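Final report, closing paragraph on structural work. Over the funding period we assembled a curated collection of sequence-structure pairs, and we close with a single example.
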Amino acid sequence: MGREAVLDVLSRTEDHLSAEDIYMCVHETYPAIGLTSVYRTLDMLVNIGLVYKFDFGDGRARFELAEGPKGKDHHHHLVCTDCGRIVNYRDFIDEEVALLKKTEEGLSKKYNFAITNHLIQFYGLCEACRKK
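Its predicted structure, as stored:
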């Protein structure tokens, strides 16, 4: 029950929710589920690759589905170090795709490592914080 409830919460949002955020959503429907169960469920979902865990520098782990509701939804993150805003960046241009593919191929060869995925986060200031 807990796994399905956590996956349901994550499938209905594009936000990067903390374990506590997920617990609050799950608890509305399943009041018997405790925060510890949500943590254990998230750990298991991360370990089997259904959920990604992120550290955006705010001291709280954040989670999102590894695959969006419409299938693969590969994206990178732009994280504002001032206000904490997180932007999902998915409108890649051809040059970016080519650079990442070349980088993956180079790293694979250099370290004899079979890369299956990557997670990229860029940190800086969003437009609103830059105008302050």
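The radius of gyration is 17 Å. The chain has two domains: 1-73, 74-132. We thank the funder for supporting this effort.
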